[in-house]
Specification:
The chain crosses the membrane at residues 5-22, 28-48. This protein is mostly helical and 50 residues long. The protein has one domain. 82% of the residues lie in helices and 0% in strands. It contains 2 helices and no strands. The radius of gyration is 15 Å and the shape is elongated. It starts with a helix and ends with a helix. The relative contact order is 0.15.
Length: 50
């Protein structure tokens, strides 16, 4: 999770520094992917625990 957060911060800073507005969706995609990964891991833990 820390790596994805670090990638989010780096992508956001790069986009803000170079004013590349077309790539402004990349940090959002990183956060969505992180949430999906966490939900998948939680569901696997629930399935294994049963």
């Amino acid at each position: 999770m820390r790596i994805i957060l670090l990638q989010f911060m780096i992508a956001t800073l790069i986009i803000l520094n170079i004013h590349f507005t077309l790539a402004s969706r990349i940090p959002i995609f990183l956060l969505v992917f992180a949430a999906y990964k966490a939900a998948l891991a939680l569901s696997l833990l629930v399935i294994i625990g049963i």
